[in-house]
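Same chain as my last thread, 247 residues:
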Amino acid sequence: MRTRGLSVRYGSKEAVKDVTIDVPPSRVLALIGPSGCGKSTFLRSLNRMNDTVEGVVVTGEVMLDGRNIYDADIDPVLVRRQVGMVFQRSNPFPKSIFENVAFGLRIAGVSDRRLVAQAVERALRQAALWDEVKDRLDESGLGLSGGQQQRLCIARALAVEPDVLLMDEPASALDPIATAKIEDLVSDLREEFTIVIVTHNMQQAARVSQQTAFFYMGRLVEVGDTSTIFTRPKEKETEDYITGRFG
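reply #2:
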């Protein structure tokens, strides 16, 4: 996946300004920067989630498998199946654990019970949740702990076998133990998926990502290997943010 000259405008406000970036396969790209700098807006533009916001205008390109996902003949529903999304707060449906994970498959028209069951087990295993819930799949997903609910939402995104997984501060509402499980999970999942994660926690970005992009006031200031960004940034704005001089 890559973007070329991507800009996002809400009415008269330009939230993302002319961003060109490559998202490398099978790696984790962390997006860092102060609140309101455009990180989440940029993330949501990668699977057309901003289409649901009235008055949003997106220009430029988001290329996925050689096609611009904003071309007129591209179905945004199919884009979101290929580019999954995990939100800041877990949002399980008021359904059973099994049906939470199976939801996307059923929407996609998969009706074979055996195939659905296999996909649900695979996704729960990928989300490191299977051993904790395999004997209670008929219980409500709302009865899980906060960390388990977030991993359930990750399993729901994985069940439809996306190529890219977007994560918008997936651990910000969790306690340290649950956060560590999510971080371990991200590290494991990058073997199979391309992951883009927004985080305010720079230590977390350093732990889980191989590449880091710093955003400031809607601009992509700098992107590079995570170790380089945190130890030898090229731009003064990046250095000032990482050393705590602002943000």
